[in-house]
Design goal:
Radius of gyration: 22 Å
Number of helices: 14
Structural class: alpha/beta
Strand content: 15-25%
Distance between the termini: 52 Å
């Protein structure tokens, strides 16, 4: 565990020459120019941003660790912690400088406190507390997944309630969003997350050995390789949990099926060392389609459940897709096909905001301020690396026993 004294010593060495602290005797909730600094360090990206109450983006900074973690085949928590510690001061200072503001112009600091990697969260929260103490700024604790679900409202006219699908390298869940702090958890993953398995598939396929993909995240490499395939039907994959009428996800079975297909092809072609099977594009395409089919199958049941329970309006339903995997255009297109068939608007934030960033944290802070969220003493708020989202209603989904055709996606996709 990172020594608190070491971290404090580092922060005490900071000379805030560009900041002019000013105590704010009362917080300006009614001020239309209320300005929030967002800090995000839940995983492997150090993100900061400054946004005002109207949703105007002053500036942002995102320092990615992706290339470094590619060497390890995934995020190394200790390395992520050290890089956050090296980058956090720079990220905040760059954002304030680009915004052409002094710190006295900022009214509050929003920071991710849950869920995420413990050591990474600690860096962001401790630095936010440091800034709060020396500049007398209130702090707003942010739930990382809530921020993903709400950031689309910054760019689209989306009213509460709506359905949200959050898919990333660490999460896969469906939630009914009824308000800024009002979430119903319909289902989540029982094992792996889609981004995680896509990364593992890319690593097992040795896509890094292909120059075009050598510097890309695994999921993005799989998507680009799949685009070069003529069809996604060469390899067959099962539909996970097809007999379970709930909204949970499971990707371990797809990963095992992929390993069997790859092993068979490597044996057929006598693949050795860094060699790659000739069917690399087709296997990527088939696996990506299997992931999309599973996600769409569960999302359709969630949509039907919310409409049946009157949780969302039948005549103006919206599905927001967010998280890193939401930037996968093929998966998003499949969800749009389902949405069109169900007369549901399917939206996502701009691609750069699907992954972790400071903008969504600052925006979530604005959402909380707009809803009258009371500012709390951060000393009383604990970091929670494994934090549930909202109220669990998964048993209600099972009780309604909603049937969804497993063949619908292929028919919709072909007709589209």
């Amino acid at each position: 565990m990172l020594s608190k004294c070491i971290l404090c010593h580092r922060f005490n060495r900071i000379k805030p020459t560009s900041f002019n602290p000013m105590h704010i005797p009362s917080y300006r909730y009614a001020n239309n120019n209320f300005i929030v600094l967002g800090i995000e360090t839940s995983c492997d990206d150090t993100g900061t941003a400054i946004i005002d109450k109207k949703g105007n983006l002053f500036a942002e900074t995102l320092l990615s660790q992706n290339v470094i973690h590619l060497r390890y085949g995934g995020v190394n928590p200790l390395i992520a912690r050290d890089l956050h510690r090296d980058n956090i001061e720079r990220a905040v200072n760059e954002t304030v400088m680009k915004a052409k503001l002094q710190f006295q112009d900022i009214d509050a600091i929003a920071v991710t406190v849950k869920p995420g990697l413990l050591f990474s969260l600690q860096i962001g929260v401790k630095y936010a507390k440091y800034l709060s103490k020396i500049y007398h700024k209130p702090l707003i604790p942010i739930h990382h997944m809530e921020a993903h679900a709400l950031v689309a409202r910054m760019y689209n006219n989306i009213d509460f309630p709506f359905l949200a699908l959050l898919i990333s390298g660490g999460h896969c869940l469906l939630t009914c969003v009824r308000g800024t702090d009002d979430f119903l958890l319909l289902g989540d993953t029982l094992d792996n997350a889609p981004g995680e398995v896509l990364d593992k598939v890319a690593r097992r396929m040795k896509l890094r050995n292909i120059p075009d993909y050598s510097q890309l995240p695994g999921g993005r490499a799989v998507e680009l390789a799949a685009e070069k395939a003529k069809t996604f039907e060469v390899f067959e994959f099962p539909l996970p949990l097809h007999k379970q009428r709930d909204c949970n996800f499971s990707f371990s079975g797809l990963k095992d099926a992929f390993s069997r297909h790859l092993y068979k092809k490597e044996s057929e072609h006598n693949i050795k060392g860094d060699e790659i099977i000739p069917e690399v594009n087709e296997l990527c395409a088939s696996f990506q389609y299997a992931v999309a089919k599973h996600i769409v199958h569960r999302a359709e049941r969630a949509l039907k459940f919310c409409i049946l329970r009157n949780y969302i309006p039948v005549d103006n339903s919206t599905l927001v897709v967010s998280g890193g995997v939401a930037s996968n255009n093929f998966i998003f297109k499949c969800l749009q096909c389902m949405g069109n068939a169900m007369k549901c608007n399917v939206l996502r934030p701009p691609p750069k905001l699907c992954t972790d960033n400071g903008i969504m944290i600052a925006w979530n802070g604005i959402e909380k301020i707009n809803s009258g969220y009371p500012l709390t003493d951060m000393e009383l708020i604990d970091i929670d690396p494994i934090a549930p989202l909202g109220v669990n209603v998964k048993d209600e989904v099972r009780y309604d026993n909603i049937h969804v055709k497993s063949t619908r996606l292929k028919n919709m996709f072909i007709s589209a």
